[in-house]
Amino acid sequence: MTVPNANRTLIIEGGHPLRGGVSVSGSKNAAMGTMAAALLVDEDCTLENVPDIGDVTHMAEVLRSLGAVVEKTDSHTLRINAANLREYAPPTQLVGSLRGSFLVMGSLLARLGRAACPPPGGDVIGQRPIDVHLAGFAALGAEVTREGGKFVAQSKSRLTGTTIFADYPSVLGTQNLMLAAATARGHTTIVNAASEPEVQGLAAMLRDMGAQISGAGTHTVEIEGVDSLRGTCHRIIPDRLEAGTYAIAIAITRGEGEVSEVCLDHLFSLISKLRQAGVSVETQDNRMSIRVDGNLKPLTVQALPYPALATDLQAPMSVLLTQAKGVSYIHERVFDNRLLYVNELRKMGAEIVTTGTTTAIISGPTPLVGANVRALDVRAGAALILAGLAAQGRTEITDTYHVERGYEAINEKLRNMGAVIEQA
Ligand code: EPU
After folding, report:
1. How would you classify residue 411: left for phi > 0, otherwise alpha for psi between -120 and 50, otherwise beta?
2. How far away, in angstroms, is 122 Cα from ligand 1 center?
3. If you write DSSP's letter for every residue of 69-105 in order, what string do you get?
4. Coil, strand, or helix at residue 400?
5. Atom 28 of ligand 1, nearest CA residue
6. Which of 62, 73, 398, 412 sits a CA distance of 20 to 30 A from 353?
7. How remote is the CA of residue 422 from the centroid of ligand 1, in Å?
8. Ligand 1 probe mutation, 102, 105, 171, most atoms within 8 A of CB
9. Ligand 1 pocket: which of 58, 97, 131, 170 to mutate (most atoms within 8 A of CB)
C-alpha cells in the first residue's frame, strides 16, 4: 500500500476537459471504523473494497501495534486477526496524526476492559473535541481519566448499556460508542447519533459479526448488547467523497464523463446542488454521468451533517462556484475553521472573501490561472487539484501527501480521463 511521503508535489497543466469514466474506490472514512471493529473478535475479519490509500496503511500499523495481524491478501482486501490482541495503548506517534485511529478506543475498551490514546490528531480544520466519545464511555460504566497526555478509559467489569445523549452527532463519536456498546450488558440507546453512511457501514459489519444494532442511518441508534461476536467478511461502502470530487472535476473542466461504482443514495445532496448549479447529472444504478452545457449558476451551499452536503465536499464545491456566473455563498457549519484553502485559491485568481471563519462569498466567473499553492489537508488538497485542472497554465501543488492519504491513485484516475498531471 502507498506510504505517505511528506515531500509530494503535483504539477498540473490545466485546461483539458475530462472525458471518459472513473471508478470510485472504497470509503476512506468507512474503512477506519470497520478496521477498528475487527479488534472486537479473536477470529478473522476480511475487509473487501479497501481503498489503497495512506490512511489505511497508517491504520493497519495502529492495529499491528496492538498485536493484531493485518495482511493484505490482494490489492483491495485485508485480513485482520486480533486473536493476540495484547496492547491497550497504541504508540502516541502512530495515533497522534490519524484521527480515525481513536476508534480503537471503543474496541479495546470492550475487548480488554482498558484503552489509552492521546488526543487524536488529523486535519487542521477547526476544534475537534472528543467529549462525545469520552462522555459516552463514561456513561457505559468506564472510568475515564487523563494520564500523561493520554485519555484512559477502563472498566473492571463488562460495560453496561444505557441511554447516551451525544451533544453533537459526531461521526467518529457515534462509531466509537457503537464499538464499545456492541458487547455491553443490556441495552444502549445513542440519542443524537450521527447518521452518516460510514456509521451505517459500520453497523452493517457489526450486525454481520452478531451484534444487534438498529437505527443506524437515523439519529437514534439502538444496541442490544450480545455476549460475543464472531469474525466476518465485509465489503466497504463506496467513497461518496471521492465520487463527489470526480463529479466536480468533470464539471469544472466542462468535460463529459461517468463516475461509477457509487452509491447514489449517499450522493443525493451533492447531485441536487450540482443540478441547481446547472450541471447535468444523469443517474443509473451505481453510476452518474456528468456534463455541463450552459453557464454555471451561483449557489448557496451549507455544509452540515448528513444528509446535507458533506463538509468534505465544501472546498471542492467552492472551486466549482468560482466558475459560476454571479455570487455564491458557502456556509461551513460542521467545522469552525475549514476555509483556510481560500487563500490558496485566491493565488489562482479566485475572487473569494470570507466573513469570519465559516462563511465564504465567491464572485464568478473568474478565470483561474496556474500558481504555486499548498495542500493544507486532504479535501483542501483535492480542491486545489480541481482548480489546477480548470486553470490556464501550470499549477504546482506542494504537500499533496495529504491527498494521497484519502484518494486512491488520484493522478492515474484523472490522467485516464485526459488530465495532464504528474508527480514532481
Ligand atoms: N464534535 C464535538 N464533540 C465531539 C466530537 C465532535 O463537538 O466529541 C464536533 C466537532 O468540533 C465538529 C463536529 O462535531 O465541529 C464534527 O465532528 P465529527 O466528530 O463528526 O467529525 P469526525 O468524526 O472527527 C469524521 C470524518 C471527517 C468528516 C467528519 C464530518 C473520519 C476519519 N473523519 O470526522 O472526515 O469531515 O466526520 O463528517 O471519519 C475527511 O475525510 O477529510 C474528514 C475530515
Report:
1. alpha
2. 10
3. EEEEEETTEEEEE-TT---SS--HHHHTT-GGGGGHH
4. coil
5. 312
6. 398
7. 31
8. 171
9. 170
How many angstroms separate the CA atoms of 181 and 37, rounded? 12
Grid coordinates standing for 24? 470510485
- Give the mean pLDDT of the chain: 96
DSSP string, 151-205: EEEE-SS--B--EEE-SS--HHHHHHHHHHHTTSBSEEEEET----HHHHHHHHH
Range 238-277 burial, b when 16+ CB lie within 10 A, else e: bbbbbbbbbbbbbbbbebbbbbbbbbbebbebbbebbeeb
Looking at this protein, which amino acid is placed at residue 151?
F
- Give the count of alpha carbons within 13 A of 6, CB side only: 1
Q: Is the pLDDT of residue 11 over 90?
A: yes
> What's residue 96's pLDDT?
84
Task: Write out residues with Cβ below 6 Å of ligand 1.
Answer: 28-29, 32, 99-100, 123, 127-133, 168, 170-173, 194, 196, 198, 311-312, 334-335, 378-379, 406
Residue 316 corresponds to which amino acid?
Answer: P
Q: Is the dihedral of CA 83, 84, 87, 91 positive or negative?
A: negative
Average pLDDT of 331-347?
Answer: 96
45: left (phi over 0), alpha (psi -120 to 50) or beta: beta
Burial class of 237 by CB neighbour count within 10 A (0 to 12, 13 to 18, 19+): buried
Q: At which residue does the C-alpha cell 496524526 appear?
A: 97
